[in-house]
Amino acid sequence: MRNIVILISGSGSNMSAIVQAAMAEKWSQRWAARVACVISNQAAAKGLAWAQAQALPTHVLSHRDFATREAFDAALQQQIDPYDLPQAPCLLVLAGFMRILTPEFVAHYQGRMLNIHPSLLPAFTGLNTHARAIQAGCRVAGATVHQVTAELDHGPILAQAVVPILPDDSAATLAARVLTQEHRIYPRAIADWLRQHPLG
Ligand code: GRF
Question: What beta strand segments (E) does the chain contain?
Fold first, then answer.
């Protein structure tokens, strides 16, 4: 069985969409894969309570307990890597994990770490994507699932979804429309990744 480890910082709605898809579509039978645990850098992350209610193992590792980014990432790696067993490697899924990762951490999980970003990359990397898309006069916005590489919000694109920007949109209404699509494309992209990376 391959272990999927999901990292979150907040509400965890993408995480719950992935967990529900894994159960509904029987990923354990089809792809020999299961969501093995959810890790948050925020103890108050709402998604943790949801994961615990599903009897999923959860861990909290606060970045505030570490003096440097490197020390936090090293501790996070120590938390994740036991899930490489018994059949390495695990898949690491960033789902609203609000941390910039060190090049060492990214290199360690190269080719097996995915992220979802709330814009149509390569446009609008970084934060406040919806407000920036509205401000720029874009007529469409969206979300992108991509492999994580050392450069923030870059890396090979695996899936995208497009939504319209409506004349009276605020950043909040646009974010809600995009998030609905995130919940659709992220589980699909992970299932595709599993299909394309069979065990053995
Ligand atoms: C999503 O919009 C995701 O694209 C971004 O952070 C948000 C996380 O939402 N990286 P949630 O925690 O999955 O509800």
Answer: 2-8, 33-40, 58-60, 91-94, 113-117, 140-147, 157-164
Q: How confident is residue 1, by pLDDT bands cut at 50, 70 and 90?
A: confident
Residue 88: pLDDT band (50, 70, 90) is low
Beta-bridge partners for 40: 8, 60
Residue 10 CB less than 6 A away from ligand 1: yes
Q: How far is the CA of 60 from the centre of ligand 1 (A)?
A: 18
Catalytic residues: 117
Show the domains of the chain with their CATH numbers. 2-117+145-160+184-196 (3.40.50.170)
pTM over 0.70: yes
